[in-house]
Request: fold
Amino acid sequence: MTTARHFALPLLALLATAALGGCKAADKPEAAASSAPEGKPGVVITGARLVLPAVTGNPGAAYFVLDNQSKGAVTIASVAVTGVGKTEIHAADMKVLDAGKAEAMTHLDFTQGGPHVMVFDIAPDLKAGGETELTVIFTDGDKVSVPAKIEAMGASAMDGMSAAPKP
Ligand SMILES: [Cu+2]
Reply:
């Protein structure tokens, strides 16, 4: 009986350690995230789309919404689109922005008539109705990639233009 008790205690201690160990492992999503190539905790990108120019060879535009649900501000260093040679982040007035900053718990709309990503040198295989990939690269090196629908410069783009506060 006494022997059994002596065994019981170390076993409990062992179980407690195991439980703690398990807790720590589950508490380490960073390890899992860093083994994945992309992702940024608390940042969600939705509605990504690439709008092709009406005239081939002209620049197009990419739009998306960045939702920053994290406790810190995030700053976009650049945006890459698969099949596109070059991108620039533009303000509504077409001025080049060095970066897009989203304060904590806010969201950033890249939308027609507002800030947008101007895309240059669009590969001919990017066709309306298809899909490409849009990658947002942050100043800290993190990246988030999302699928982006490819759209022709159509009715919706025209709507955006008439809604734009431009002369
Ligand atoms: Cu522009």
Remarks:
- The helical segments are 2-26, 29-35, 155-163.
- Residues 90, 94, 116, 118 surround copper (II) ion (CB under 6 Å).
